[in-house]
Amino acid sequence: MSKSCDNLKLPWTNILGAQFDSVKDADAWYMNYSRLVGFSVRKNELRRSKSGQTMIRRWVCNLEGYRAEKYLANDNRVREPRPITRTGCKASFRVNYDNSSGKYTVTEFKTEHNHPLTSPNEVHLLRSHRHVSEGDLAQAKALRHVGVKTCQVVDYMGDQVGGSHNLRFKRKDLQNRLDADRRAEIGDTDSVATIAYFTAKSDNDPGLYHEYTLDDQNRLRNLFWTDYMARYDYECFGDVLAFNATYKTNAYHKPLVTLVGTNHHRRTTVFGFGLLGDKTVESYTWLLQTFLSAMGNRKPKSVITDGDKAMSKAIKTVFVGATHRLCCWHLERNAQANIKNEDFTRKFRDLMLTGMSAGEFDLWWFALVDEFKLHEHGWVKQMYAKRHKWAEAFLKGTFFAGTRSTQRCKSIHCYLNHFLQYRLKLYEFVLQIDRALRNIRTTEVQDEFKTKFSTPVLTTHLRSLEKHATNVFPISIFHWIREEIRQEATLIQFEALNCTDTNYYTLTQFGNLDIKWTVVYNKPTNKIDCSCQLMDSAGIPCRHMFHVMKVEQFRNIPDNMNLYLSVHEDTTD
């Protein structure tokens, strides 16, 4: 097979013996080759003559070599060590100066890599290919010439270069300069223009789904939209859904509902958006039913909201069987607003988030009520009646992917603030949200890149299990799991019972002997269950499970605990 590089038209095969006029030409050829193949380049060997003439220049794969052992063995770290990226790759390219011809001859070209190569949509993340092209620079200068600040160019330029995001300016909205003109163009046909935009966009995105309703005066009342990527994300991560409706940055003061979840990197992923005419049960019911239709009628297993009554009624009607959790952040604020006692708020929060049995919860709750003499307080009575919606004692074992609040919705809204001006027209509002969404999705590409091409430094006492975790979990999930491995060192084995097929362990914790956990290990199925139910609630093995793995001499984490592994593989095919 023979391929040629567009700039120098030299073949990739039989390159040995080829000549370049200069080191710069050789560098350009190898850089282009590495970009097309999918790896990053680092300059390595350089030798010059006494006169300053470059005699030898060598380039290597950026993953060449290994990190020095002294950095790996350092036990006195203050910060988290940088992930390991060196794999000892031998790929290289070298040119030698030929005195007789005055040119540089290729004397070494090794193409074998010992690591995965990047896909085309990840190349821009490679260090040697993160740069601004001359064309990008010229366009940026032209924009600045007409008065646009450099920090306002970034998203516009990112769109123009195919979403490569090579430009690293602060994210501002170039289209802000066109606001007045666009408002004049849209005028009274704002809603029509918005629907036309979705219709036209569906030509390029067959998975785009939008639905709307009109009021009695034939004006747009409710609007919902999602796209192919959001629907695919919901298929992978739709077990947990969070949403609220507190965002009104548009000219019509319509509340924006952002429906989000958590992906396999513990990042917020957006499933869809809705603009509602009001916050009634009817509007929320329409939104959730439309959302379900877009997602193939697959209901989430659990839903997290801020406690709006109309929203709660709609969830109960549409998401039958789903567990509805109230946002712990909102409840903590409500506790302080209603009781106005910081000591009560702190104890209420501890009671809300601590895993315990239902009987223990009642004991703690009534003790708290007695302590602050709140037997007749209306809000306190309401909270006890709703305890199954907010207390960890009643929610543990239900999968929430480690999420307890609607803060993911709020973080998305904060990010949208960088794109949305106050009181934007509907058409402009939708355009800006779409642009923001494209930027949000680049984060997942970066997370995938870090997971593929870096390895965390091992730091715990269970090295074999920790090492296996680095191989099968995304990096962000690994950090979460590693903390559980570290905490295993604080556990004390209180009792052990070994049977034919099943071993039972009772564990307690150093400094807190009143709390006990029961862990059951089934030998034939290689399955471990723990009474803390972290695996069921968050999808990761708990410290108590790691203790049993240590006692049973496990070197790998069982496959049935690799929830995030299966999701990771499904989404990176």
TrEMBL record:
Name of the protein in question: Protein FAR1-RELATED SEQUENCE
Species, as recorded: Citrus sinensis (Sweet orange)
